[in-house]
Structure formats: structure tokens, C-alpha cells
Amino acid sequence: MRRRNVLSKHSTKSERRVYEVLKKLKLPFRHRWLVQGREIDFIVGKLAIEIDGHEQDEEKNNLLVSLGYTPVHLHNSEVTEEHLTKLIQTYKWLLQK
User: Fold this and answer.
1) Which tens digit of pLDDT belongs to each residue from 52-94?
2) Largest Cα–Cα distance of the chain, in whole Å?
3) Where are the alpha helices (DSSP H) in 1-97?
4) Beta strand 47-52 pairing with 2-3
């Protein structure tokens, strides 16, 4: 895995919102991380968060699962501080890995 350098101007509004919430929650995370050549929006522990305004990539999901990640897809409309906080609380056990 490696980090891909991406300027914030290339991030979507929803991605910037997730970034700010994760920072506020003081969680260690990686943004736009490459996993075997596939870009993942956010990696938080073993949680792989994808912000989707499009159809899900089943092949990418299968790759993530095979590597021990739990993929979570959020539609742009679901990216609110309240929803993200609940999501993090629900998957808290994955954040320790």
C-alpha cells in the first residue's frame, strides 16, 4: 500500500467533509490510499470508506475483503457529521487493527 499525493482541490466536497470529521474525531486515517493499485477514499484501521456517487466496484470490494478490510460505501448525501460519527461507533472494533 502506498499514499497517493493528491491536492485538496482534487477532492470532492463529500471527501473534504469526511476528512474534517475524521480529524475532529482524532482518528488516524489515510486519505486516497492505493491498495494494490486501487484507490480507496479513506482507510481507518481496517475500515475502507468509499464515497460513491456512482455504481460500486465489486472487484475492488472483493480485493478489500480478501486483504482484511471492511468496505463501507457512502452516498454523497450520507456524508454528514452525525452519520459518520454513528458509522465510526458501529465499526469501532475495526479501528483498533
Assistant:
1) 766 778 999 999 999 999 999 988 888 888 888 888 888 777 7
2) 32
3) 13-24, 58-66, 81-90
4) unpaired
